[in-house]
Write a structure and sequence with these properties.
The complex is a heterodimer of chains A (255) and B (453). Chain A is built from twelve helices and no strands. With 255 residues, chain A is an all-alpha fold. Chain B has two domains: 243 residues, P-loop containing nucleotide triphosphate hydrolases (Rossmann fold); 143 residues, abc- transporter (atp binding component) like domain (Coagulation Factor XIII, Chain A, domain 1, Distorted Sandwich). Chain B contains eleven helices and 18 strands. In chain B, 34% of the residues are buried. In chain B, α5 packs across α6. Classes of the chains: A mainly alpha (255), B alpha/beta (453).
Amino acid sequence: MKNIFIYRNILFTLSVRDIKAKYSQTFLGILWSVLQPLTGLLIFTIFFAKLIKVDTHGIPYPLFAFTGMIAWYFFVFIVNQGGMSLVDSEYLLKKIYFPRLILPISKVLVGLVDFGISVILLLVIMIISGHLPKLTLVYFPIFLGLTILSGLSVAIWLSALTIRFRDFQHIIPYLVNFGIWMTPVFYPTTLIPQKYQFVLYLNPMAGIIGGFRWCLLGDVRPPIQYLVGIIIMVLVFITGLIYFDRIEREIVDLI
Amino acid sequence: MNNILISVRNVSKYFHINDEYRKNFRELLMSYLTFRKTKSDTVNDHTFFALQNVTFEMKRGESIGIIGRNGAGKSTLLKIIAGITPPSEGTISIQGKLASILDIGTGFHPDLSGRDNIYLSASLLGMKKREIKENFDRIVEFSGIPDFIDTPVKYYSSGMYVRLAFAVAAHVNADILLFDEIISVGDAEFKMKCLEKINELKNNGATILLVSHSFNDVMKFCDHAILMVNGKISAMGDPQETIIEYVETILKQSSEGISRQNKTETDSGNQISKPEAEDTHSHFKQWDEDDQPPGNDYIRIMRISVTTKGLTEKELITTDDDIELEIRYKQMMDNTCLDIAFVLLDESMNTVFASSPAIDETILSTVTPGYYAAMCTIPKHFLNQGFFSLDVVAVLEKREIVYKHQNLYRFRVRISEDLKEKSLKLTPGPIRPHLQWMVTNIEQIGAEVPTKL
């Protein structure tokens, strides 16, 4: 951890590289960060709000879904990019030394840019539609922090495991595809029958998305049972760090 | 102040061939969960040693060149010193800031501009943003491609790419610089520039450890050389002597190979079964008529010898000997005006000089078919110690090269005992001619010097 601070220069450099590379030579540039979630939102609004008509406790469906999507896609970005970060940077790993944990962490900073743009977009839509944010907005950083921690927990494990077993590379897309339906991104938790709700409690992102909706949109506060998911997440994070630390020195020999 | 910047002690690095992959998932999981070493984590039959008991030190401002064949462990050693990969055994201690330049364009991203890549690469090599800013103009100037600095590097030619990449590497500020075989790129002019820059770094007190296949570079830049053979340090010391030792090991290993390449394939098995004895040196090479001697429709080389008067198989030519060179050949065609010639090369395969009887007008070119012997003497005190090889060439009508055999014969010249005692043994370069020198005291700097004392 102390090492990461010493090498923070490399952390920022790698993040800036990714951000710049992502939008270099694209005609629309950073606009893509806005277009992508908006088109997704449009499709889901048509399906869930117009065709299926889910109940979102009086919150306009586009706002409801968009909040979920912002948090979920940020989480997925960290898992996806972070999980593949070591394998993708094989070349760098073999040529210079830096704390390897910097690679998955740098993806958080990269994802944060898109996340920030989306949040601003959300706030703009809220203000335009007259749904002004409430004082609970001050809790926003807590849920942002929890999202990062959840993403990193999974990413650290995956990045380390992918080095050893390339199988995990193929597992990531499954995880992401199943995850979105196991998490109340497009639907409210109330859609799940009471007796199956404990499944959601195990999923930290379920509580976190609920939390975002609460602090941004004034949705009902997620019940205390969601702490179970958070505790699980913290355990995954700590064990992930331990595992990563164990294999860190050998990564280059294994890759 | 501690003057030893790098200290490598008993460092070994081994890998388990296949073994890692033979462990199944459950076994691995258990060994991780229980933090216990499994059988294959220790040395066993499947262990491959990339490095074995390597020990050396580097003082501040020193520069060492590592030479050796591919796979001898040179790069592994650099990676261990750089901290990229851990040693299996032994310790390494580093004092000061270290930059490892193991490749051209570390971290370069093809989609980013030259400018962005300078910042990217330099900071990955350990420079602070402020340092990069200060050096930015110098880096761009050094690269010589200021017009393309805002173009994505993927549109660069490979030459431009290398220039930019090296420009960054050359401006890295560190106490210790590790270079892995990166100087030998780019065009001649740029290479010269790079070498100057490395010299400058060295003069500014940088400690440089470089892996190189270029003997010239090692001799020019390094105070010491380390020869690695199969993961061990096989020799360490003066660059020239270490290089000679290296070439000798190569020759020993490939001496059969060289004579074999002139034979037909069916003969090769025969060759292997009679290897040369350890300490004898044959001073000639000869081909039988039915051995398919090297040559073509114009000429066949039958025998080549490089020796000196009274030289036995136990001895080597020294710098004090007149070297007698003889090429016997068979001229194949009638009415063709042939001249034999040779090109002498040093151990880095640089041409030292070429010679032919054709320069002497009193010697007639051979015209009729038959056997001929061409002889000449390379005077003593002319060649320096080292390994030399000969290309043999046949010239038609003094104009056209009709046959050329590269690397037909190799020989070694050893330092004479006399010079060794005078401790004049270390002179760089492939030749060390005795020139007529005169040193005289003069009254003032503009004074006339008598032409003869």
